[in-house]
Amino acid sequence: MKRVFYFVAVVCLVLLAATGCTPKDENIGTEAQLYGRWQDVKNTTSYIVFQTDHVAPDDERFRDYTDYIWGKEWDTNDKSEHDLDTEDFHGNGWFMWKKGPQIVSRLATMNKVSTALIPADMNLEILNDSTLKYTTDSGREFTFRKIASK
Amino acid sequence: MKKALKIIGITLGSLVALVLVVVFIACYLVFTPKRLTPIVNQVADSLLICPHTLDEVNLTFFRTFPNFGVEVQGLYIINPMEGAQSDTVLAIPDLVVGVDIMKAIDGDIMIKKCALQDIEANIYIDSLGNNNFTVWNPDLMSEDTLAEDTTASAWQLRSIAWEEAIRFSARQLSFVDKKDSLAAGLTDCCIQLSGTDTDSLAVKLDLDANHVSFQMKGEQYADDLHLRLTLPMSFQSSEHITIDGTQLAIEEYTINLDGYVGSPCLASGIYNMDVTVKTNEWKISNVWHLVPPSYQSLWPKEVDADGHLQLIAHAVGTYDSISMPMVDAQVLLTGAQGRYTPLPYYFDEVEADITAHADLNNKNNTTATINRLFARTGKTSVTVSGTATDILKNTSAFELSNPLCDLKADLDIYLPDANYWIKNDSVQSWVKGTMTGTVTAQTRLNDVTTFNLNKMQISGDLALEDVDVMWQDSTLAQAEGITVQLTAPKKNIKDKAILSADCKIGLDNLHAQLLTADLDAVCLGGTLNAAIEIDTKDTMNIPTITGGFDLTDLVADMDTIHAHAVAPKGQVTLTSSRRSKQKPKMIVSFSASEMQAMMGKTTQAKTGNITIEATATYNKDADKVLLKWNPRLKFDLQDGHAELAQLTVPVDIPAIKFAYSNREFKIDTSRIVLGHSDFSLSGDVRGIGKWLGEQGELEGDLRFTSDVTDVNEIIDILNNFNKESGAVQTDEVEQPAQATASSPQTRDPFMVPERVNLNLLTTIKKAYVFDETLQNLGGKLYLKDGTAILEEIGFVCEAAKLQLTAMYRTPRRDHIYVGLDYHMIDIDLQQLISMIPQLDTLVPMLSSFKGGAQFHIAAETYVNDQYQLKPSTIRGACSIEGNDLVLLDNETFSTIAKILMFNKKTENKVDSISVQIGLYKDEITVYPFCLSIDNYMAAVGGNHYLDMNFNYHASLLKPFYIGVDVSGNLDDLHIKPGKCRYVQDFRPIIHKDTETKAAEMKKIIATSLKQNVKIQ
User: Is the pLDDT score of B738 beyond 60?
Assistant: First the structure.
């Protein structure tokens, strides 16, 4: 009886611990594979760039997010990348991101009119050197292909 | 005694008898005509070379008593010549000469008596110069013969004199010179030559001719005139012959001469003189008949004049081949009348006193002085005085030079006399009143004829009284008095190349009407001024023209319009820029202590002190209006007030003071009171000109302050204004037709100007908006680098404290950025929903609550030129937090409480609500939020899309777990049960130390949104 009790307790313990474990998804690549320039497969005018530079600590608006890395996205129907690098620098079209095991947490930034940050997470399904596929919290699905390493 | 007398008588008688016997013997026995006549004839034969006759020569005693004399009868000298007026050169029917025999023997001829009766002389010179009076034997008259005679004869003529006057009476004396075209004749004349002083050889010639004629070069200068001449001459020497007392009279016209003439030698042609000439008063009409016809024709036929003329002249100097005497003359005209027939004026009184100085050796020195020239016609009179110099050219001929005139005219004009000049058959123009004054002019005659104004100096000082003017049936003006002062050139202009004039007009009680426009204006008094300067050296330079007024009071009425200005003063000057003479510059100034204008009963405006000063320099090379005109303006207005029919409240402008130039626009003060609202704007804007020229940035700092702003009242005023003005209300506007592919309806977006750096700091102490009273409303609006930013506009009202930051940026016409950051704290939820109704759509349950809340929202997007959203650029976040919220109404609470079996102690209150919303591209994410009351707890969250589809989940977490999914859209709603998704977020079975993802996101949104909040 004692053994059974201990066995059951160990099993429960393992089960409980296991709940904290996430099985590794082989389709999800590394952060380094995320760096680069991606193009939406369906909406080919839409692009995302995951950069490598971290959020600078001297930017008051984002001082709590220095562990995040900068990225930018745009739709050429609406704006150009040059706009992002000039008047919208670190504003509209930019986001801070950091990669988790199966998620890329993104906080979209706004131009200096506001300090607000808008969460826009990517729930990863495929990440490799050529393909990025994710869903949003609302269930929408997006697929990008890498077109450049920067 | 008797005996003695007897003896004396006998003795005297014997002597007389002896003398008589001697005379008788001499006259009748010894020197008889028969003896004397042949002797004289013989002498005459030797002397004369032409035919002649001598009837009788007789010695006479009784005709020349007590002297012996010679009586010659019938002396005729005949010398026929073709063309001569008579063959008889000289006819002396009767000649008597009495001499002193004793003195004659010694060579001193003393003529005691000489009389010639009925003389006839006919002197003729033909066209070749031959004459008929060369009758003397040339041999006898030669110098050799005279010298032989002198040496051969013992008797010599030592002197000749006469005691009594030599008298001539002539039937006819004629002189004809065909060579010089001269002809003169006297008939029935008496000539008497008397000596007044034998020592100094003074003689006196008296001539009285009843019929005198004179013709020269075909011109009849005298025809049957009565001529009298009295010529006393005193011969001091040949160079000094005094002629004092000389008088020449033609008919009733006399000329008196005094002075002397002389010549060193008659053959020298040199004559010295110092002669004064004075006439009596000549009646012009009578004298006119004496003027030769050819000279009469020079007189204008249109001029009809008469009067009395007197001449006084003085000639002194030498007349010879190279010099002329100086002449000073004075002409006096009295009692003259006349007219110039084309004009309707009759001068009934004309007087003149003119003196002239003629230096005929240096004709440039010839001058004339008008001492007084007076003319009157009707009630108008003019008095002129002045001088004219440099009258004649310094040439041999008498040629008029370009005289310099310095004239002064005193005017006394009855203005109706001038109506002739302005009347017109088609329209009525007339003038009434009087004008007096003085006009002076210094000018050369040529400058007047060529209108060379810059060389003329003219000034006038005129006064008009009781003036009444009608001009072309359109303008009527009346004035008690008008003064005019004219100066040309202006006093401060010395350069004669600059043509200038200055005019000042003073007004006294002027009333003017423009009949065609029903305009009536009254000016109590004041002055008008005008001036002009033209540089004739450089015609490219712009003239300077100035006009101005300075009035005491001006009132004008036109129909229902009334305008009144107190002490209006203004000036307009058009001139050239100092930097470039070819660029025109205008300078305007205006001021008034008070102005008022009314139109009907509903529209009026008035001001206190107003001052405007403006300059504008034209630059034709510039393209924009402000750069073209480069205006400078100073404006100062006090106590303005306006009432318009379109405005329900009056507008008061306590003060406006600003200065504008293309360099800086500075508002010192500007205050406006509109109903309950007041506004004040001050500050400056710099670099306007460079900004317009795209050479620099426009910068400015402005401050807008208001103690009270009643927005409701302002909206009412504007709505009423639009209505009254005929503008269409927004809600009444028909929606524009849908744009088609072929004819799209487009409108230009508002583009924020580039290179503009403007700041507007706003402070409003209190504002009434709808039912709210907002306090301490302030913030900053600035334009910079193509961006318009409304920064941290905040206010406090009963329902909230608010802060707003908004941004509008236009990098490109089709790429426009719009963003806002809006915070409200301490707000009542119902007030919140009434201010932002869209919140009720997003958070439906919000309308069910009331209580305090915080509301934060930030949103931004890019739009195209039609303000259509660019979805990929939409970003937004919103956070609504509320504490101690109360369920809306107790009845609903009671109903729910009964159904759900709430505890009786449960209050109608929710502890808290915290809603965070994210907007990312086209998706709105409502992060789950929880409500708990009594034993119940529910959580709601989901997504909403811009196409109005949604996907929500509601989880009931207490007393049990139930989930509901709501999706689709309002027309196609899908509700189905689902798993409770928000258990872990709000009521986890197993608590974890880490936040849920949703909680983390809500926290990020809430925290990041509030970073900007400045209001407390």
Answer: no
What sign for the dihedral angle of Cα B887, B890, B895, B898? Answer: positive
Chain A: nearest CA to B851, how far in angstroms?
Answer: 25
pLDDT of B795 reads 66
- The b/e string for B765-802 (b: 16+ C-beta within 10 A; e otherwise) is bbbbbeebebeebbbebbbbebbbbbbbbbbbbebbbb
pLDDT band at residue B740 under the 50/70/90 scheme = very low
- Asked if residues B57 and B37 have their Cβ atoms less than 8 Å apart, the reply is yes
Q: What are φ and ψ of residue B102, in 5° steps?
A: -65, -45
DSSP class of residue A56 equals P
CATH class of the region A25-148 = mainly beta
Secondary structure E strands in B100-181: 108-125, 159-162, 166-177
Residues of B in contact with A115 (CB under 8 A): 821, 858, 1008-1009, 1011-1012
- Which chain B positions have a beta carbon within 8 Å of A87's beta carbon? 809, 811, 817
Residue pair B974/B968 in contact (Cβ under 8 Å)? The answer is yes
Residue ranges per domain, chain B?
A: 41-143+156-269, 281-401, 408-536, 560-645, 648-686+696-724+750-787, 799-1010
The torsion of the CA quartet B976, B981, B983, B986, rounded to 10 degrees, works out to -110
Cβ pair A79:B873 closer than 8 A: yes
B986-1011 mean pLDDT: 75
B483 CB burial (10 A radius; 0-12, 13-18, 19+): middle
Residue B7 identity:
I
Please state, in angstroms and rounded to a whole number, the distance separating the CA atoms of residues B534 and B501: 9
| Confidence class for position B291, pLDDT limits 50, 70, 90 | confident
CB of A35 within 8 A of CB of A53?
A: no
Best of B809, B818, B875, B965 to disrupt the A interface (most A CBs within 10 Å) is B875
Task: Determine contact: B862 vs chain A, CB below 8 A.
Answer: yes
Can you tell me the distance from the alpha carbon of B585 to that of B544, in angstroms, rounded to the nearest whole number?
9
Nearest to B919 among A87, A118, A121 (CB): A118
pLDDT-derived band at B630, boundaries 50, 70, 90: confident
